[in-house]
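Input set for joint prediction.
Command: fold jointly, output C-alpha cells.
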Amino acid sequence: MKNSVLILFLFLALNVNGQNYKPVWESLDKRPVPQWFEDSKFGIFIHWGVYSVPAWGPTGDSIGVYDKYAEWYWNKLVQPGKVQKYFKNFHLKTYGPNFKYQDFAPMFKAELFDPDKWAELFKESGAKYIVLTSKHHEGFTLWPSAQSWNWNSVDVGPHRDLCGDLTTAVKSKGLHMGFYYSLYEWFNPIYKDDFNSYVDEHMMPQMKDLVTRYSPDILWTDGEWDKTSKEWKSEEFLAWLYNESPVKQNIVVNDRWGSETRSKHGGIFTTEYGLVGDKEGIENSVPHPWEECRGIGTSFGFNRTEGLADYSTAGELIKVLISTVSAGGNLLLDIGPGADGTIPVIMQQRLLEIGKWLKTNGEAIYGTRSFVRSKKDEAINPGTNKTVYFTQKDNNVYVICLNWPKGGIVLKGVKSVSKAKVSLLGTAISVSVKESGGNLIINPPAMTPDDHQLAYVFRINGMIK
Ligand code: FHN
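C-alpha cells >
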C-alpha cells in the first residue's frame, strides 16, 4: 500500500514529459523548446495599446534604432533628453499642456477591430503564430486584468477583451496564439515603491491569469533589463509554467527573464533589429532556437509619421526571412494596428506579398533547419550580405537565390551521394545539374519576365555531402 502511494506521488510530481524542472536555470534550461516553434519559422508580432492613439515617433537617420519606437511615447514625454524633446514638442503643439498620457485611453476605441478579418490576413501571410502585446511598458492591459483596474481595455477605451477575442479568432484558423508581456512598468507606483509586492501581487498573478485564461502557446516577456531574474522570481514562475500550468507541454518562452538572461537562459534567444541589447545579434547559425523581431517600418507601435521610405519592401522582408531561417532562426515580424482597430494598408500589403511568396516557396522555409556543415561552409551558407542562402529538410537541400542567377550556381566542394535531382519551385521547368571538379553546378533554366519571383528556390533532392 505504502509503495503504491509512493509511486502515485512520484507520478504526480513529474510532468508528462517525465521531467520535473527545478526553479533554477540549470534545470529550466534543459527543457527543449517545443518543436512546433522551430518548424513554424514565421510569426506576426502585434504592438497595440494606448500608444496607438498618438501613434507618433521621430524618424530619420539621425535618430537611434530604439528612439524611433512610437510605443515609448509616454516614457519619452516625461524623461529629459534630446530625443524626448521631439515628443514633448509634438505633444504640446497637438494636445496642449493639460493633456495627460492617460487621456489617450478613452480614445483607444478599436471600433473597427474585426478579429476574424485580422486572423484571415495572418493566415494568408503564411505566418504560423501570433504574438500580441497583452501589456506593454505602459501597464495598460488588453484583457480584463483584476490587477490593472481601470487601466485595461474592458474598463476603458474599446470595452472589449482584445486578448480573448483575438485568441479565439487566431486559434480558429489553426494558428498558434501567444502573448507579449512586459515585466516592468514605467510608472506603476507599486513598481517604484514596493517592488516585492509588485512581483507577488501584480506581475505573477497577471502572468498566471493570462496563461490559465487563454492557454497561450507563447509567453514572450520583455522589459526584463531593469532587474535580475532573481528579483523578478523568473525561475519560480518558469518552474510553475513547465511543471504545473495547463500549457506545460506546448508553451514557448523567450530569453527575457532578467538583466542577465538574454541569449543565455530561458527558451528561444531573441534579437531585435539584429541586435541583442546594444550588441550585434546572431548572424550565423547558432545551436539554439532563436528569433529575430522587427517592425515592417522602424517602430513596433504604429507611427503615423513614417513614410514609404521607412517601410521595408516585400523583397527586403523576404530577404530577412530567408537569411534568418537559413541561420536557424524564426522571424517575428511586427505590425502596429491603429487605435481604431484597422491594420494599416501598407502592412497588409507587405504581409500578403510574403504570403504569396511562401505559397510557392514555403517548402524551403517551414520545417527546415540551417544547412551548415563546417567552417569551410562559408561558401555554402553565406552571411546576411550575400544573395544565396541554404536550408535543408528531409532529403532536400534548398538553394535560395535573392537574384536570378546569371550563370551556373556553383556549390563548392559539394558532391551528391545519390544522383541529385534539381527543380525550381513554382515551375515545371527541369533544371540540369552536374558534378565537376568536386563541385555541384546547377544550371538555371531559361525564364521569362512572367516567371519573376521575389526570390528563387532550387530544390536539390538526393543526399549531398
Ligand atoms: O522596449 C521594447 C520595445 O518597445 C519593443 O516592445 C521591443 C520588442 O522586442 N522590445 C523592447 C526593447 O527590447
